[in-house]
Amino acid sequence: MKTDAPPEWHRLFNAALNDELDDASRAQLAVVLKTSAEARQLWFLYQDNECSLAELKPRAATAKASRSAISWLAWRPLTAAAAGLVLGLFCASVAWAYVAPSSGKVIALMQESFESGPSPLVVGVPTGPGKWSGDFSGVVGELEGVKPASGKKMLRFLRGDYEGRSIPSSHSSDLFRLVDVRPYQRELVGGGAVVQLTAVFNAVSFSEDETFNATLTLFALDAGLVGNEMVKGDNVLSTESLAFSRSSKVVMDRDPATWQKVSNELRLPAGTEFLMLRIGMSNDTKSKDKRRDSFAGHFADKVQLVLARRAEIPVP
């Protein structure tokens, strides 16, 4: 193992410690952790520290100590850099973590508040990872009395169809994202891996004779469906996935001041290489006189996906 970290690592760790990571540096730091076994090894060694250093002193004193530690880190071996990295990554809310999820530990696979990045694609189910795609939707700021749950932006559902496919009978608007979990194969061994998807939903006030429900769905996939247009077919995800789960429907209230949380979990079977996430809003209004394919007054925010290990319930 090398004894000194590359200078660029110090810059990234420094920024993480001081909560100064911009989008480019955040992405660069994620790449370093993803591609460097040396960095990950040391990350594993220091995972149990988490933010305990930050808890030893009040916030101001901790910030001062962290700044003092920066110059120390710049001259010490990679081990010292990793200690700073633990504090920085946990406390600066880096979106991707590479902690080995021993029992009780959690890996944040994705955190999305729609603050940056491109708008969701409107071409149906995505065939590759890293981008939101699905029915017509958009990213907006505060709108019609609804304020984002986090930051200044939120997802806005629009319609129940997407480019190239009109679905007059559709009564749901869905957004999908494919997540590559192949870097976590070590954590998936043994059947103990569980993923949890959470998000919050809101809506402008709507009439008493209308009913809207929010749901979250998780699909465990092997690589066979990735990059294949067949994934866009009706019911393909549910019939061809290794496993899937859908949350209970959460009935939307009529108060734009409240965000309602929805949660869903899936125990990952052997062979899982990708996860497909679906966040959806359905119009379950019974009246045939009401349009059921329009969702412009409905929103989602704070989408989070985490991985942990949890023993199965023993069955006699």
Describe this structure in words.
This protein has helices at 7-17, 23-35, 37-45, 52-55, 59-75, 78-91, 185-188, 236-240; strands spanning 106-112, 132-134, 137-140, 154-159, 172-180, 193-203, 212-221, 243-246, 250-251, 260-267, 274-283, 294-309. With 316 residues, the chain is of the alpha+beta class. The protein folds into 2 domains: 7-94, no CATH class; 109-309, Sandwich (Jelly Rolls), CATH 2.60.120. Strands 1, 3, 4, 6, 10 and 12 form a 6-stranded antiparallel β-sheet that branches. Strands 2, 5, 7, 8, 9 and 11 form a 6-stranded antiparallel β-sheet that branches. The longest helix is centred in the first third of the chain and has 17 residues, at 59-75. The model is unreliable at 42-101 (pLDDT under 50).
